[in-house]
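Troubleshooting log. The previous structure file for this entry was overwritten by mistake, so regenerating from the original sequence record. Sequence copied from the archived sheet and checked twice against the printout by T.R.
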Amino acid sequence: MTSQVKSMEDLMLNITQEIHVKASLEKTFESLLEITGPLFASSAFISNIQYRLSEEQGGTLISFRHSALGVLTEDQRKGVSTGWSHMLSRIKSHAESSQSRSASVQ
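Regenerated output below.
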């Protein structure tokens, strides 16, 4: 891994995403609890990850933010953003399918 740090901004990572889920706050929260495991970084790196859930008409809004400080290559930065998009997409699918199953049982 070769990375050149030219400024403080080169050490910072900020990803903010919002995803609208057509599922209740409860079903969405249950899906979020399934996220486990270590973060991706194998170098000196510190992260803060926040999920904020709020009810909205027809479902739940997930406001996601990953802030970090450490040395990353440009490819790693792109990979982090792509990875979180994939993870949030899976959370949405799981929550919405759980909501559908619950609705069909009632």
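The longest helix spans residues 74-105. Archived copy saved in two places this time.
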